[in-house]
Structure formats: structure tokens, C-alpha cells
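Integral membrane protein
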Amino acid sequence: MDDIRGDRPVRTADWGWFLAWLLVGACGGIGLAALLTVGAAFLVLAAVAAVLLLRRGPRRAAVGAVSGLALPLFYLAYLNRGGPGEVCRAVAGGQTCTEEYTPVPFLVAGALLLAAGFVIHVRTGRRARTGPVPRT
């Protein structure tokens, strides 16, 4: 039905802006998670990209940054996939053990952020195409 109305290119462009903001959010999330090491560089990169996107693209696509915050959380869940507790792995010449957290909170928080960003983007996209809903 979208092809009949001819708004297919607009919808595709909206998702492109959303994905750009998703990357900004991921960069910002990595910057916050790694603040004591390389985080400052990621935060500066995210800030510069956000300024550029705010100048060029639709502001409603900025909700993609919310979904982008999910990517570092998914990575933390992956890193802690053996937890909770002490996890030992074989390495050359012996073994190494690390303390890992449970991955479930990182996974749930990431899934909620990812879903929230997508749902908000879809709903605001529909509202922008159909116009505001009249109040009765």
C-alpha cells in the first residue's frame, strides 16, 4: 500500500536517519561504558555526529539514539554470558579465571531500549504522515 501512495522513498529515508541516530546512541553508550579509558573520544564523536544530524535530518529520528544505547548493553550481556560467578577458561600454559555478572539484566535492558526506540519511531512516523489526531 505504501507504493500506491508513493511515500516509499520517504519511509526509507526515515529509517536511514533512524539508523544514523542508532549509531550515535551506540557511540554514546560505549563512551559512557568506557569513560575511564577511551570513552571521552567516543562521547565527543557522538556529540559531533548528533550536531550534524540535528542540522540535516528530521528531529523525530533522534529517537534512534535510544535504540542505539541497547547495543553496548547487548555487548555487556555477551561478555558476561558465562556468569554469574567465577568463570575459568583454558589459555596457553594454564587457565584464567574472571568474575562475571549475570547477563540477564543487560539483555533485558537492551531489549527494552531497542524495542522502545523502534516503537516510538514507528508511531511518530505514522503520526507525521497522517497528521495530528483531532481531539474530541
